Amino acid sequence: MKIIACYSNKGGVGKTATSVNLAYAYAQAGYTVLLCDLDQQGAAGFYFRVKPSKKLTDARFFEDVSRFTKSIRASDFDGLDVLPANLTFRDFDVFLSRMRNKRSRLKKALVAAGSDYDVIILDCPPNFSTLSENVFRAADQIVVPVIPTTLSERSLAQLVAFFDEQKLPKKKLRAFFSMVQRRKTLHLETIEKMRKQYKKRILEAEVPFAADIERMGENRAPVSIFAGRSDASVAYQALFDELEKRGVPNK
Amino acid sequence: MGRKPRFFALPGNFDQDKFSGMLKGFTVAFESSTAARSFDLLDCHDQTLRAKGRLLIESERTLQLLKSDGSVLVQDGSGTGQFVQDLPDGPVRAGLKSFPKLRALMPVGSGTVKAKNFAVLDDLQKTQVRGSVLSLSTGHGKVTFLTVQSMRGYKRAFLDVCSALECMAGGASEKEELFQRLLPDTIPYVAKPEIKLGKQQPSIEVAVEIVRTYLEVARQNEAGIVADIDTEFLHDYRVSLRRVRSVLSLFKGVFSTEQTTALKHEFSNLMALTGRMRDLDVYLLEKDIYFNLIPANLHHGVNAMFAQFAKERNRELTTLNRRFRSAAYDRQMTQLVRLFADTKGLETGSNADRGAYDYACALIWKRYRKVCKRARGITPKTPDEAVHELRIDCKKLRYLMEFFAPLFDKGEFKSIIKPLKIMQESLGLFNDYSVQQEALLEFVATQSDAQNRTNAQLAMAVGGLIAVLDQRQKTERDRVIANFQHFDSSKIQTLFRTLFRHKEN
Fold it and tell me: Where, by residue number, does the polypeptide cross the bilayer (chain B) (predicted)?
C-alpha cells in the first residue's frame, strides 16, 4: 500500500481534479485504489456521484475502523473505491487535538482500514493544520499543484519552509504546474524561474487550464471518460506516468 | 472488489419493465443486446452434465458452463467432439473435472443466445448494482440467466435487486426444468435402463422385455458409432447385444430350441462384426499403459505397432460405417425390434410360462453352484483354461443376477454382487493379459515376411510386452483364488442359499 496526497496550502489550484484523475489513472493501470476525500466540501465524492458519508462523523474517522470500512463506496470504475467526506470533516483538527499521537492518527487509520488497496489517494483541504501534518507524515508522496503565478509560488515557498522547520523529508514533495495558460507571459516566466529554483521538486508534467477539466463537474466523471483525447486527459496521464516512473516507495 | 456475484435462472423471457418497476428508488439502465449468436448445448451421449444440473454452452468458440448453483464459468475454445481432458486449460475444463474420461462432448441441442449488461442507478445516476442477462432460446422455448454483482458500500440495493429477481424466478432454478423448456424432446440416454418385473410374470415376458430394452439401447448407439464421437458408443452397443445374447442362452427353455439357436447365431454375427473394432479401441485407449510396461529404448517398436493399430482402426471404421448405413442392416435390426415387440411372434419353450421369480431362483442357484464347484477346483496347477471357464460362469451368474435383480431385495443383492464383482475384475484382468499376449503374437506374425523375419525393433517391443503381460497374468491368477475365498465365505453362502434355494429346486 502506498499513500499519495494531493495537497496545497492554497485553495483553487486543482487538487480535487488532480486526485480524481490520478485515482482513475491508477485504477486504469490495474491498481486497486481508494480515493479518500478529506475535504469537508466533498468534491471528490461529488465527481464520482457518491453521496456524503452519513455515519462516518466526528472522531469516528480516526477511531472506528469498521465504520471507516463500511463507509467506503465502489465507484462506477473497476478497482476504484471512494471514501466520501461529510461536513464534520471540518472539525478534524478539534478531534485530533484531543488525541494522543495526534500527528500520526491518519496513517494509523489508513493502514487499519485501507490495507486491501494498492494505492490510497488523499484529497486534502487547503491549510496548515494538525490534519495536514498528519498528511505529510502519512503520505509517501505529496503531489502539489502549483498555478504559475506569484501567489502560488509564495505558497510553495511556505510549504518548503514548513518542511524545513518541521524537519520533514522534502523529497516527498512532488510539485507540478497546474492550470497552465501558455499564452500568458507571466505563467511562462514563473515556470522558467521556478524550475530553476526548485530543480528537484517540480515534475515535468504540466496540466493546462482547460474547459474540459471544468466540465468534470457537469459530467461528474474523470476527464478521460468524457474527453479521452483532450490535452487535459493526456496531461493527467503524463503526470501519472511521471509519478510511477520516479516510483513511490513501497511500504 | 472480489465480491461474490449471485445468479438467477428465469424460465422464459426476462421482463425488463417488471424488473425496473420492482426496484423502488432506482432506475435500471440496460445496454442494447449483443446480436443473436447461435449456440450449441454440449453434453455427452448419456447427458452427464444434464443429470448434474449443469449446462455447457458453446457459442462462437467460447465455452460457458452454467453450474448447478447458477454460477457461470467461461473460457475460450471449442468443445464439440472433444474430450474434456483435451480442452485447453481454463476454468471450464477445471469445472468439468469429474466428466467421464471416455466420453466426448457433442451437441445435444442448439439455439440462439443474446447477452446484455445492465446497471441499477440511484438518483445521482450512480451505479449501485451491475448485472448481465444471458438469454437462450431454442425452437421450443426460452430461458434467461442473470448474474448480478454487488458493489462495495451498496449492499441494500444489491439485496433489493436479488429479492426482485428471486420473486421473478419464482423458485424455478431447477436446471432440469430449464433444460426441459429448451429441449423438451431430448430424452436422456440410459445405458442400463430399469426394467420392471413381476414375480409371477411369465418368464417369456421377462426375456422379451429385456431383449426389447437392450435392442433399443443398441440402436441408440448406432449414430454415435458411425460419427465416431467416442469409443463408448460401440462399447455400449456391444454390451447391449451381449445382454440380449445372454438372455437367449441363459433363459433355457423359454424359447423353442430352434428359434433360440437361430437368434443366438444372429446376435453372435452382429457382435462379431464389431469385435475387431472394439479390440483396436481398447488397445488404442490403453496406449499409455503399454508404453509404461517396457523401457523407453523399446518404445520405437511400440510406436510402430500403434501406428498400425490406428491405421487398421480407420479401415475397420469405414467397413463398419458402410455396414451400419446399409439397408440390409437396418432391415435386420427393424425386424428384430419388431420380433421382440411382444411375445406373439416367438416360439415358446417348456419354461415360457414359468413364473419369473421361481425361474430366476432356479437359474441363479444352479449357476452359483457351478461357479463354486469350478472355483474350488482351481489350484496353482490347474491349466489357464479352467480359469477362463470360471470367468465365463461368473459372467453368466452376474448377468442372471442383474436381469432378475428387480425381483429381489436390493440390499441383500448388493452384498453378494460386490464380492462377485471383485472376483470378476481379477478374472477380467487375467483374461485381458492372456488375450493381449495372443494378440501381440498374432500381430508379429502378420508383420513378418515369408521367411518369418520380423523388424527387430517391433519384435523386441512385442517380446518385452509379452514378458511383462505373462508376469501380470500369473500374479492375477493368485488374486483370483484369493478373491474367490472371500466370495465363498459362509455369510455369502448363506445369503445365496436363503435367496435362491427353494425346496422344489
Answer: none
